[in-house]
Amino acid sequence: xxxxxxxxxxxxxxxxxxxxxxxxxxxxxxxxxxxxxxxxxxxxxxxxxxxxxxxxxxxxxxxxxxxxxxxxxxxxxxxxxxxxxxxxxxxxxxxxxxxxxxxxxxxxxxxxxxxxxxxxxxxxxxxxxxxxxxxxxxxxxxxxxxxxxxxxxxxxxxxxxxxxxxxxxxxxxxxxxxxxxxxxxxxxxxxxxxxxxxxxxxxxxxxxxxxxxxxxxxxxxxxxxxxxxxxxxxxxxxxxxxxxxxxxxxxxxxxxxxxxxxxxxxxxxxxxxxxxxxxxxxxxxxxxxxxxxxxxxxxxxxxxxxxxxxxxxxxxxxxxxxxxxxxxxxxxxxxxxxxxxxxxxxxxxxxxxxxxxxxxxxxxxxxxxxxxxxxxxxxxxxxxxxxxxxxxxxxxxxxxxxxxxxxxxxxxxxxxxxxxxxxxxxxxxxxxxxxxxxxxxxxxxxxxxxx
Length: 451
Fold this sequence. Notes:
Layout: H1 7-43, H2 49-67, H3 71-93, H4 105-115, H5 124-147, H6 157-224, H7 232-247, H8 281-284, H9 287-297, E1 301-306, H10 316-337, E2 341-348, E3 352-359, H11 375-386, E4 390-395, E5 401-408, H12 417-425
Parallel strand pairs: 1-2
Antiparallel strand pairs: 2-3, 3-5, 4-5
Helix pairs in contact: 1-2, 1-4, 1-6, 2-3, 3-4, 3-5, 4-5, 4-6, 5-6, 6-7, 6-10, 6-11, 9-10, 10-11
GO molecular function: ATP binding; kinase activity
Protein name: ATP-binding protein
Organism: Cryobacterium flavum
């Protein structure tokens, strides 16, 4: 019962459990003695009421000892219990023509209750010593009381059996306590190893995704670029990648995942790709907006539709990962789709936020996606799944590609709910129109392998 508990709590927990069980057994014995003597006093000897008082005193002291486990109360219980056993035995066996011998179960009840004081020991050795002292005192008091009556003495097997069982339980508990103490370090090491594996897995996932977002993506872009001088967009993308790898400590991003506070908002400046009308800070401060602007800088025409202010419902860590996933989808359009435009549609409900990234490019099939391609698999799917979300991909040759990202919304809501409704109603700035690739309706839930 102690496995999994901290080492300093194992001994205390076992001691309390054993003490509680022993005290309940003792109280049961005392209540049985009171009931039996009460019935006997009504039928044979009214003078037995004194035993009820003695047993009640033992019960009250036992309850007090149960609530406050102190040595002084244990000593007091032994003294009062010894006197109680003597009075109880003398009075009960003094009733004429009722008990033929001293080894009756009724006589053993207060003695068994007294022996149970050993269950309150904090260690197995202390418990055995307390039980042994109680057993000796109980048997001595009972023997002296029997000598003053006409009832012949017989060995009390009930009390002896109770004493041996209690001692055996305490010895076994002590052995189990040592075994569990020896197992505690191994259990805690296993828990720590599991936590370390999870941290390493999370770090590996982020490292692989970052490698694909930066180095791999730029190498592919360079391989597809026309010979000669680099375009301004590609040059800006390379500079951003170098700054990410050289000027930032990206390894610490794994710790930022625990930050669930609302993101700080900033005021953006209008450009040729941003609306001329007022735009909410929630959209301008989102990582999705930053990702779209970076791909626009590389020459991709991106049309944004839907509820942009819904991104305010993402916490800082989710916003960062969703932005990186959207950027990877748009980079895939630049590198693989063969078109210069894409659309990002944002939807939300009470519990989730969805982004649909669509292009009307060449599309792909499962057989065209090699197992070592990391784009959608690491930079998109793994990121979204670690947030508790899901990724669906629809694509076929000549029909474009649609990627749907769905993530849970945070508990906080945007500071101005009316702004979100206004964003839905007002027109959003659009780049030159494009043909949207509609997800095939025959099997919308079957994702393709990442390209």
